[in-house]
Amino acid sequence: MTFTAPVLNYTILSPMLIILAGALIGVMIEAFVSKALRPIIQLILTLATLLVALVQVFRIRGTESVSAAMGSVIFDGPGFLFQATILVISIISVFLIADNENFTALAAAIPGSAEEQESIQKGNKVTEVYPLTLFAVAGMLLFPISSDLITLFVALEMLSLPLYLMAGLSRRRRLLSQEAALKYFLLGAFSSAFFLFGAAYLYGYSGAISFAGIRSSVVGGSGNDIFLLIGIAFVSVGLLFKVGAVPFHAWSPDVYQGAPTAVTAFMAAATKVAAFGAMLRIYYTVFANAQWSWTPLLSGIAIITMLFGSFVAIAQRDVKRMLAYSSIAHAGFLLAGVIALNKAGLSASIFYLFAYGVATVGAFAVVTLVRDSSGEVTDLNRWAGLGKRSPWVASVFAFFLLAFAGIPLTSGFIGKFSIFSAAYESGAKGVVIAGVLSSAIAAFFYIRVIVLMFFTDSHEDATTVVIPSVLTRITVIFAFVITVALGVYPAPLIDFINKFATFIR
Amino acid sequence: MNISLTLLMALPLIGAAVLAALPKSNALLAKQVALASTILVALATIAIAVGFERDNTNLQYVESHQWIPSFGINYAVGLDGISLVLILMTTLLAPIVVLAGWNESQSGRWSTKTFYILILILEMMAVGVFAATDVFLFYVFFEAMLVPVYFLIGGYGTGERSAAAVKFLLYSLFGGLLMLASIIGLYVLSGAQGGHTFDTQALSHLQMSSTTQNLLFLGFFIAFAIKAPLWPFHTWLPDAADSATSGTSVLLLGVLDKVGTFGMIRYCLTLFPDATKTFTPTIIVLSVISIIYGAFLAIGQKDIKRLIAFTSISHFGFITMGIFAMTTQGHSGATLYMFNHGFSTAALFLVAGWMISRRGSSTIADFGGLQRVTPVMAWSFFFAGMSSLALPGLSSFVSEFLVLVGTYTRYPVAAVIATFGIVLAALYILIPVQRALHGPTTPGNENLSDLTLREKVAIAPVIAVILFLGFYPSPLLKVINPAATHVISQLGFSDPAPTQLGGK
User: Fold this and answer.
1) Lower CB count within 10 Å: N or C terminus of chain A?
2) With contacts defined as CB-CB under 8 Å, which chain B residues touch A425?
3) Which of B70, B143, B181 sits opposite A433 (nearest CB)?
4) Percent helix, strand, coil in chain A (nearest 5)?
5) Residue B140 forms contact with A (CB below 8 Å)
6) Residue A4 domain flag
7) How confident is the model at residue A195, as a pLDDT?
8) What are the extents of the domains in chain B?
9) Domain count, chain A
10) Contact A451 B154 (CB under 8 A)
11) Cβ-nearest to A491 among B67, B185, B188
């Protein structure tokens, strides 16, 4: 038996390698640099790493390769777009993470212990969150460009594990945060098991773990269809869990609420891009010819997800939980893009992911600003009258909500229009009608928040809005400008996406 | 100088930008800037109207630029007679609203300048919605204009203002989203038949099965019926009108709701001619119900603002009936009615608003004997009421008559029933006129002050327009008629020959 030395295409792997290198240097900094210097050094290192990776992604944008790492990585136009989106979202999320008011002083300390008190008094800061972020980003970059089931699974775990930890780092209400982390971890492990189970069946069906191999079996139709169906179903469960589609959504409200808001922003936006990226690739290439077997199921899940997310969001009293349910509803809209299974659907999904991701980070950035003496206030009732006290912050938040609701002249409207028209074009009229109806329902709770902020008088225990730090301000302004610009003149981005949005197989 | 429609839309925006740059404390300056901007827009519109070729049925002042080329979306605007008339109405009413509601922004949650910024943005979008010849552009304005109205009602209204604002917004959004589904349907169909487009002209040549056409028609129609509002989609209107300031109400009922009836002509009829024929009988029935129902409920109202809202539901019934009667007279009448209703509702709301702000109550029973205390205000209200009940010699009479004649030739029964609406109109106007203006002066009303000079200046042009068009409607009709004939002939209808009763 001879051993073949692996041939790696370093150019194509370079963005991930850059991120991983940055993450490892970050770990070294944790070990060797004094506590006082760590926050600033880590921040600069993380941002620099992400920026360099973004530049590198743009430099290799025209490249296409099906065998970047012995056939386990595939790089093409959509892969480039997913990676660029993830990096942009990560950069603006890191600005929020840098505002370390959100993070516990000592993650290892028991909540309420003397040890915790001591480290708070010392002014310690959790800086391990930066390398963790970078590891997660590396996993996210790999996820949508994996081209076999093993790599896909490794990428899934690589992006998930740091997120489990990061969800537990909240400075306030630490028990809630740790509960969220544990819940996320357990359910995530559970869904990973489902995913592996499905992967095993797909291997049994086709005798291959590479996407190309499975695809050729699907096209040929030679294998046992039962295995294929079980494989598709269970792999889908793993992916649907990550995007938070009903009925695999149960973790998301708790985790969104418990995690530090900056982490929630990162998780909500970037994970969605990565997971939908992988999902689009798998359904558009591997399972495309078995369309008959998964479209009805996925349409059903899309419809339930949209309606459930919208209905349940109405009853929420916590702004982070409300945004969680709204993100569930948006996952349903995005599934419409997967179901569309045409070029328009792919472009629309990518546009939607970018627009929604940026607006989501912006919205959570605003959430971090609304505080009282004991930290962030997420109880919606206490947001009453915010428009009076801080008109700018409230207006910007209202604008993001209108974008989520899909009001024209915001990016959300263009996204919704393009994704629904792609789904309609492929004949999924039921999904479009459910989408339109749930948009109407969703509008109700977005508007309820606007009513609270602008038309309700504030309580005595009013919240204050802190003056945003420069970094948070950059995030909010960037998200706002993008949301407006993509609503008013989306043509350049749409054309850019159209140019790249073709999967190679 | 050549004024383009884009410039016309830019003017209010520039005004809004200037307002935004002003200091918050100087409310008077904000009002003056707002008034100057709206007057400028009105003058620009008049200049456009003067340059409009009346007998040319093609779209005029056409502009078209690519907006989102990959979806075939263009920024495309143009005018036909119908849209010109409605834009004229919008921009003429705007300065009147600003002048009449000089102080109504004071009770608001936010500053005066925000109020006028919202009004100017609304004016710009209203012009855009009437001028758009690209369905997507139309939809963008149609939905986006909800936002300023929402804040105008919720921020500056009275009573249950935020609930009314939410109700208005949710109703409109619901209709709008149904329309979005239909627009997506059109887009996909056009893609299958020679390339994605949103151009109204091109879309009207689409081939579609009758089921598809019926469904897409309903998406548009329900959105417009909510906006117009037609029974049974009207329930948001009384609340909104009740809570909004009278100036906002004028813009809401006078301008915004016309988008519904305008949309029926521009989109329902031209894009879905077959479906229109299928649904016409149903819609005629709904219109007749609206006419009678609105009138009856108006008679029963104790609150003056709600009363006006219900009279409008009745009037919108007439307009819709005229549109779907499919005769040239009906169409011309309906369009003229839209214009006239704008002015007569403006008169009613503005005078009612002055009465309410002086008395501090909007209950009709709280007024009484006003004509002795405040003769000018009382007679203005009387005049506005007469215009609303379509007294011959006032502008509404011409349009109501045209609508009824136009309907009678095709749907005689509907026309006959609708005529009872006129009788009921006399009741719903004359009862409040009698209670509020005549009889003994109710205690507490003795010291009410009459209209100020500013208010007189505001109401005078409205009264002048109503009187002038009552006696001499032909300047408008000459603009409307060619467009109406064009629409009817495109639909393949010809006017039924008048028949003589008992003739052999």
Assistant:
1) N
2) 188, 191
3) B181
4) 75, 5, 20
5) yes
6) no
7) 93
8) 130-490
9) 1
10) yes
11) B67
